[in-house]
Amino acid sequence: MAKPLKKLVSCVILDLDGTLLNTDGVVSEVLKGFLAKYGKQWDGREAQRIVGKTPLEAAAAVVEEYGLPCGKEEFLAELHPVFYAQLCNIKPLPGASRLLKHLSGHGVPMALASNSPRGSIESKISYHQGWKDYFSAIVGGDEVTAGKPSPEIFLEAAKRLNREPSSCLVIEDSMPGVTAGKAAGMEVVAVPSVPKQAHLYTSADEVINSLLDLQPEKWGLPPFQDWIEGTLPTEPWYISGPVIKGFGRGSKVLGIPTGI
């Protein structure tokens, strides 16, 4: 039976961390090491409070939460080299590579829009073969005046794709990202990164559990050919790294390393 068409779109704009890449394990290990120096233990209890924040907002939240004797800038500066040394260990989330390959193979224009700095985005995707070539545009948080939940980053992505905002489909995992996409006048599919929070994503046009659940034909895009109702497609995928208490498979723990 044909799926009802939600709205015809002609391009897709994706978030990176928490949507395409799983940075949980790496981020938690980096934070554990950093906080241990101050006699603190990272357990992810404040993760939901900083989900989707800008880098400095996220850093400020962690510094305040743990009462650290350093400023947010010092906090980020010390974490960066440790995190970047671990970029090669970040795996794609289930369905990410399948989706990118499928859309690219059918000539669907795609853009990346992340609050991470442009250089960080390019470094992360460089470890995943072919990913950089999939995207016609990449917009980093350091290329706009305001990050998500401001719509600016998505509007800039649409501009670089030479598409009207109303013809864009955004795929996001955070509430600030969903808010930004809707404010930009775009259709938004949410893939919540924090477990048991799907009920909060009411502003999204669709909420799915995983990229494996995305059905492009609902948006007028070419359907997957490996889709069988009630089953999962066959693809290599990874779930790795320690589980952070109260935090899911996303990556909104720390903005500058992980972005949104």
TrEMBL record:
Transmembrane segments: none annotated. Gene3D superfamilies: HAD superfamily/HAD-like (3.40.50.1000), Putative phosphatase, domain 2 (1.10.150.240), Riboflavin kinase-like (2.40.30.30). The keyword ATP-binding does not apply. One of its GO terms (biological process) is riboflavin biosynthetic process. GO terms for molecular function: nucleotide binding; riboflavin kinase activity; sn-glycerol 3-phosphatase activity. SUPFAM superfamilies: HAD-like (SSF56784), Riboflavin kinase-like (SSF82114). The keyword Flavoprotein applies. Keywords: Flavoprotein, FMN, Nucleotide-binding, Transferase. NCBIfam families: HAD-SF-IA-v3. PANTHER family: 2-DEOXYGLUCOSE-6-PHOSPHATE PHOSPHATASE 2, OS01G0757900 PROTEIN. This is Riboflavin kinase.
